[in-house]
Write a structure and sequence with these properties.
70 residues; mainly alpha
């Protein structure tokens, strides 16, 4: 009985160590994805701003000034 309990305890400890390792790896992945997400958000914001600026310039260039402004 003591041998069986010892074997079961060792198996549980090994499983726990394996799960702890997996949690550490997953945590690293989550941290990296968070960093990537922030970088991509900044890039999307930058590109949106650039597109807005280009669109405003295009609109301004297509609107002819009235004759009394020329």
């Amino acid at each position: 009985m003591a041998d069986e309990n010892s074997r079961r305890t060792e198996k549980l400890e090994a499983s726990l160590a394996h799960l702890e390792h997996q949690v550490e790896q997953l945590n690293g992945v989550v941290i990296e994805q968070g960093k990537l997400l922030e970088r991509l958000k900044k890039e999307v914001h930058r590109q949106s701003h650039a597109m807005e600026s280009l669109e405003l310039e295009r609109i301004k260039s297509n609107n002819a000034k009235p004759p009394h402004y020329q």
